[in-house]
Amino acid sequence: xxxxxxxxxxxxxxxxxxxxxxxxxxxxxxxxxxxxxxxxxxxxxxxxxxxxxxxxxxxxxxxxxxxxxxxxxxxxxxxxxxxxxxxxxxxxxxxxxxxxxxxxxxxxxxxxxxxxxxxxxxxxxxxxxxxxxxxxxxxxxxxxxxxxxxxxxxxxxxxxxxxxxxxxxxxxxxxxxxxxxxxxxxxxxxxxxxxxxxxxxxxxxxxxxxxxxxxxxxxxxxxxxxxxxxxxxxxxxxxxxxxxxxxxxxxxxxxxxxxxxxxxxxx
Length: 267
What we know:
This protein has helices at 17-31, 44-54, 70-77, 94-99, 112-133, 137-150, 200-206, 249-261; strands at 8-13, 35-41, 58-61, 83-88, 104-107, 154-158, 163-167, 171-177, 180-187, 190-197, 212-216, 219-222, 226-231, 235-239, 243-246. By secondary structure, it is α/β, with parallel strands linked by helices. The chain folds into 2 domains: 3-146, 3-Layer(aba) Sandwich (Rossmann fold), CATH 3.40.50.2300; 154-261, CATH 2.40.50.1020. The strands form 4 sheets. It has a 5-stranded parallel beta sheet, with helices on both faces. A 5-stranded antiparallel beta sheet has the order 10-9-8-12-11. The radius of gyration is 21 Å and the shape is elongated. The N and C termini lie far apart (54 Å). 26% of the residues are buried.
């Protein structure tokens, strides 16, 4: 068997037994026969016991469960060394899930293609952890620095009708729109946008801070796409020729410093 499909030990945690059995069947019949499902837990107490017993590589975890939800559970047992894929009927938890560095966030009813994508991401992450663990600490530190700059990191953006898996580097900017945000991004050769619930501050915390910068109360930009700074009465930034966005007066000087010190833009 190819090394991409080494045995992976997985625990399924969901308070509905039918949901557990459904996920179990889809994973093994349609997604990856090399997934070894070590157990099923219907509450977090049971899950904790099975985590100690089987030391799974990953858990597929429902969020809303009686007595204790997934976020409280993970906070209580932290730190943990397994990876997490959230499986839930509710889309409002996506931002919290990504802040916890979840591998993926899958909405019920489960899509086979979405689950397959999550398992691919899971295998990539586990393989990378394995490489790091086999090397020395100095290598690990260097590798982490290099990875943060160069590794392709993706985010799944989901609205009611669409799921877009987008590399952070392909996001142009995030715009606040009341209790929603609009994310403008490049997919293939097409500029697209998607509107999601959440505040700009939520997304500011989520985006990599080595190339995203808040330029205005309503705009968070990807500095890799800064084309030009206009210094008229009101300062503006041009992103990839398409978009001209305002820079607030108090953020102008810190933005220029950030752009120059990170080699994103020079006058």
